[in-house]
Every structure is written in structure tokens, then in C-alpha cells.
From TrEMBL:
It comes from the Bacteria. It comes from Albidiferax ferrireducens (strain ATCC BAA-621 / DSM 15236 / T118). This is Transcriptional regulator, TetR family. GO terms for molecular function: DNA-binding transcription factor activity; transcription cis-regulatory region binding. The keyword Cytoplasm does not apply.
């Protein structure tokens, strides 16, 4: 007669549960922590400047030791490269979504301008504007400038199409793209969270000025007043 297996025997035969989490989960945790390092670094670069921020400063704000950072990044240059890249990638993705949504060129252009404004008021976008790529090694600088060029060309394309469809006055698309990007980029230098205007209110007023200028035209309200009224109707309270 075969011997009956007891509960104790079955328990002994079972494989012990591993105390280590799966590789996929470990990689996910590492990516979350790496993003925290980059976000914290971007905040400090914006507050103090790139040269005045050390890896010790970043580690202290994260409540970790400096050696811990080296598990996620090689050095401060790599941190800056990734922060600037993230800011640029966010812009490109937002512009691509505006293009995919379709509509007239002027509608896509305004949406892209809003995306641009929103991102330069966020940590990675501000880092892109305030620190820029001049601090980077030449090879990294060239790669990131190619991404910037893609944003510039998208603005030029939309201006060209807007002129063709009759929604924009005839102008030099290259110069128009420079003016638009230059004006909106500067927001990233003077914007301070907790100020008088929210990013949405800033976008509304700046875009209205870029669309209509500040000269009052006979027979109608200034474009700025229309834009401000529209923004005030939908957005209340905010930061600067």
C-alpha cells in the first residue's frame, strides 16, 4: 500500500518564495528613481544654475548619499543632457499631437504655442531655457540642437500653411518662427510658480499679443483685450 503524503511533506516539497522582485519590476523601480534624480536636478539647476549645483546638493534634496546617485547617472553632465532632452522631447510630442489632431494651420499653430508655453513653465522645460545646451559636450550639443531644429521647422511649416490658407498675414516664416519661439522661450526665464498668473493665463495673453500685436485697430477691440477676456472667462486664480 503506497505511503500517504502528509501536509508536512507537501510543504517541504514546495519551492520557497524568492525574496527578490522580478527583473522587470526592479527595472521599473530604477526608472522611477532615475526620473526623481533628473527632476530634482532640473529644479536645482533652475534655482541655482548648473555650475552652482553639485551632486551633493542633488543627493541631499533626495535624502540619499552621493554614491547612490551613480547607480542612476554617470555624472552631472549626463544629468543635464537628459534634463534638456526631456524638455525638448516633451515639446516635440506635444507639437506632434497638435498636428495629428488636424484642423486649420492657425489652430494647430495656436495649440503648439500653448504646448510650448506650458512646458517652459515646468521643470524640464525651464531647465532647457535657463541652462540651455551651451554647457554640454560638443557631440551632445549637436544632437540636442537637431531636436531644437525640428521644433523650429514645425513652426515654420505651420506659418507657411497659415499664410497659404489666408489665416495669417504674408510674412517670412523663418523670422516668424524665430519671433514666436523666442518670445515663448523667454517665459521660462521669468516665470515663477506661485506668482500672479497661471501658465494658462500667461499662454492666453502672450499668444494674443503674438497674434494681434499691441496696437489698437480702428473699429474693434485690441486683440490683446479679446485674448485676456477669453482667458479670464475660463481660467481663475493661479500662479505667475
Amino acid at each position: 500500500m503506497p505511503k500517504k503524503r502528509t501536509a508536512t511533506t507537501r510543504t517541504a516539497d514546495a519551492a520557497p518564495e524568492s525574496p527578490w522582485i522580478p527583473a522587470s519590476a526592479r527595472e521599473q523601480q530604477r526608472e522611477v528613481k532615475r526620473n526623481a534624480v533628473l527632476s530634482t536636478a532640473a529644479q536645482l539647476f533652475n534655482e541655482r544654475g548648473f555650475h552652482a549645483t553639485s551632486l551633493d546638493d542633488i543627493a541631499a534634496r533626495l535624502n540619499v548619499s552621493k554614491p547612490t546617485l551613480y547607480y542612476y547617472v554617470k555624472n552631472k553632465d549626463e544629468i543635464l543632457i537628459e534634463c534638456v532632452r526631456k524638455g525638448l522631447q516633451m515639446m516635440l510630442e506635444g507639437i506632434d499631437e497638435a498636428r495629428t489632431a488636424g484642423g486649420q494651420a492657425i489652430d494647430q499653430l495656436v495649440t503648439c504655442m500653448r504646448v510650448y508655453t506650458r512646458i517652459v513653465t515646468q521643470d524640464f522645460g525651464m531647465c532647457l531655457i535657463r541652462v540651455g545646451d551651451d554647457e554640454l559636450p560638443p557631440e551632445s550639443r549637436q544632437a540636442l540642437r537637431r531636436l531644437k531644429s525640428a521644433i523650429d521647422m514645425e513652426f515654420r511649416r505651420l506659418v507657411t500653411e497659415g499664410i497659404a490658407e489666408g489665416s495669417l498675414e504674408p510674412c517670412d516664416p523663418k523670422m516668424a518662427a524665430f519671433v514666436i519661439a523666442g518670445a515663448l522661450s523667454w517665459i521660462g526665464r521669468w516665470y515663477q510658480p506661485g506668482g500672479e498668473y497661471s501658465p494658462e493665463e500667461i499662454a492666453t495673453q502672450c499668444i494674443a499679443m503674438l497674434q494681434g500685436g499691441i496696437l489698437r485697430r480702428p473699429g474693434g477691440p485690441a486683440a490683446l483685450e479679446v485674448g485676456v477676456a477669453a482667458g479670464a472667462a475660463g481660467i481663475k486664480g493661479g500662479e505667475q
